[in-house]
């Protein structure tokens, strides 16, 4: 996670160009990449100092100490930031289910969106919208638009997922993942707000929790259990 000097999370909401940073994980670290910057390998061993980190209202221990990565990211963003690691095992948990570990994500470990839901949005806007604007982990094809709104439990392969709650969307969706700049017309959030607004906010996608472990492979079929 990228954080400010006090350990508070930093995202593309504040620094849109952050979406241009790539992070390729491996067993012993992560390789950072960005336009105009030489790739940087950051070993897990560089994170040697605990820090109290903050994501929204959650405070939990993470790890800092990767000074080279701190400088690399700070130079790219033009502002002092730190690069944090959860550690081999995260200390954070999902609020609604303390048994479920959670890394630096907003509030849930996984996000599911139906491809037909994105197609519906693109048709309303009048041009294709990239799924990467919404940053899902799971994309489902073959169902009707927003069918995922009515799902409670599903199975993919051997893994059963519980659909917890809709995902409220923010200005981050207006950041173009290809250019790292915000849309001047506030799309796609503006169009979403015309037909996906609820008392909780503008929703698109579903937050999900895996009830067991297993391997997922693209192309697996989905069973609607409930």
TrEMBL record:
<feature type="domain" description="MOSC">
    <location>
        <begin position="79"/>
        <end position="225"/>
    </location>
</feature>
<dbReference type="InterPro" id="IPR011037">
    <property type="entry name" value="Pyrv_Knase-like_insert_dom_sf"/>
</dbReference>
<dbReference type="InterPro" id="IPR005303">
    <property type="entry name" value="MOCOS_middle"/>
</dbReference>
<protein>
    <submittedName>
        <fullName>Molybdenum cofactor sulfurase</fullName>
    </submittedName>
</protein>
<dbReference type="Pfam" id="PF03476">
    <property type="entry name" value="MOSC_N"/>
</dbReference>
<dbReference type="Pfam" id="PF03473">
    <property type="entry name" value="MOSC"/>
</dbReference>
<dbReference type="InterPro" id="IPR005302">
    <property type="entry name" value="MoCF_Sase_C"/>
</dbReference>
């Amino acid at each position: 996670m990228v954080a400010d000097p006090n350990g508070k999370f930093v995202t593309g909401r504040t620094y849109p160009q952050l979406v241009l940073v790539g992070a390729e994980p491996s067993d012993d670290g992560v390789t950072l990449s960005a336009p105009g910057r030489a790739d940087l390998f950051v070993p897990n061993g560089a994170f040697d100092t605990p820090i109290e980190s903050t994501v929204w209202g959650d405070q939990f221990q993470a790890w800092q100490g990767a000074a080279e990565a701190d400088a690399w990211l700070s130079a790219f963003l033009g502002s002092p930031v730190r690069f944090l690691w959860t550690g081999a095992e995260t200390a954070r948990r999902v609020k609604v289910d303390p048994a479920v570990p959670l890394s630096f994500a907003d509030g849930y470990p996984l996000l599911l969106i139906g491809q037909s839901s994105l197609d519906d949005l693109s048709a309303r806007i009048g041009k294709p919208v990239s799924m990467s604007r919404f940053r899902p982990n799971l994309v489902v094809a073959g169902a009707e638009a927003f069918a995922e709104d009515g799902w409670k439990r599903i199975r993919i392969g051997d893994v059963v997922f519980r659909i917890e709650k809709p995902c409220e969307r923010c200005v981050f969706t207006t950041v173009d993942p290809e250019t790292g700049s915000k849309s001047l017309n506030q799309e796609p959030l503006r169009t979403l707000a015309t037909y996906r607004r609820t008392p909780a906010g503008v929703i698109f996608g579903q937050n999900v929790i895996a009830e067991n472990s297993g391997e997922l492979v693209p192309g697996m079929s989905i069973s609607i259990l409930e």
